[in-house]
Amino acid sequence: MPQLVSAAALRQIFSLDEFEPLARERMDPAGFDHVAGGAWDEITLRESAEAWRRRRFIPRVLTDVRSVATTGSFLGREAAIPVAMAPMAVQRLAHPDGEVEAVRGAARAGIPYVFSTAASRTMEEVAQAAPDAERWFQLLLGATGTLVGRPLYWSLATGGAAGIERAVTILRDEIATALSLLGVERPELLDRGYLQA
Ligand SMILES: Cc1cc2nc3c(=O)[nH]c(=O)nc-3n(C[C@H](O)[C@H](O)[C@H](O)COP(=O)(O)O)c2cc1C
Q1: CATH topology of domain 14-196
Q2: With contact defined as beta carbons under 8 Å apart, do 136 and 103 qualify?
Q3: What separation in Å is there between the alpha carbon of 185 and the centre of ligand 1?
Q4: Where are the domains of the chain?
Q5: pLDDT by residue, tens only, the chain of 197 residues
Q6: In sequence order, which residues have a C-beta less than 8 Å from that of residue 63 and are 6 or more positions away?
Q7: 26 CA distance to ligand 1 centroid (A)?
């Protein structure tokens, strides 16, 4: 099984899509298939990815975006970007330390970590590993951010906590670029009016 990629190699990753093949090389094939797969014919899995690709933003012009802020919030608590690590079962499939390594990565990147009901480490171990992390249990409603699942799972398998940090940096840069191009200063100012139907 290949080692985690080095810090220098992580800096050469520029798109979230690059993590999946790197994770595949590092994970046990059955574990990889469990995370990558969907139910039965995987119709919903395919269609949800295609639905995202069909979305287009509508940029506004003549707005001052010399400085954009990429911070987000979950029930009033601030995060580095409007993204939290989604609850995902059995993170030992991605990394020997599982959820303990994942929460460290989320804490380093400044995003909330959502603990799954089907975790492979205890809640106490996760709390002890990152006492200052923003830690959530899998049930949450009313957040003004989004949960990202598999891409962060692949980044955990690729580079451990540092891999998650790199993935969040890529996401933050993408959000900053998108906000600038859209003519929007902060993510919470976005609404459906910025989306092409
Ligand atoms: C391997 C795996 C395990 C998951 N386990 C849970 C879970 O225990 N609880 C839960 O609420 N959602 C679970 N999910 C769903 C994720 O939280 C998330 O909603 C889903 O992966 C969609 O986000 P994505 O398209 O960014 O991956 C799991 C997803 C995957 C891929």
Answers
A1: TIM Barrel (3.20.20)
A2: no
A3: 30
A4: 14-196
A5: 679 999 999 999 999 999 999 999 999 999 999 999 998 899 999 999 999 889 999 999 899 999 999 999 988 889 999 999 999 999 999 999 999 999 999 999 999 999 998 899 999 999 999 999 999 988 655 556 788 999 999 999 999 999 999 999 999 999 999 999 999 999 888 888 888 87
A6: 183, 184, 185
A7: 20
Instruction: Please identify, by atom number, the ligand 1 atom nearest to the C-alpha of residue 152.
Output: 26
For residues 66 and 116, give the distance between their C-alpha atoms in angstroms, rounded to a whole number: 39
What token pair was written down for 53?
Answer: 């690709």
Q: Ligand 1 pocket test: which of 24, 88, 90, 138 has the largest number of ligand atoms within 8 Å of its C-beta?
A: 88
One-letter amino acid at 30 equals A
pTM: 0.86
Residue (of 10, 5, 28) closest to 166 by Cα position: 10
On whether the CB atoms of residues 123 and 151 are closer than 8 A, the answer is no
Per-residue tokens: 54: 């069909």
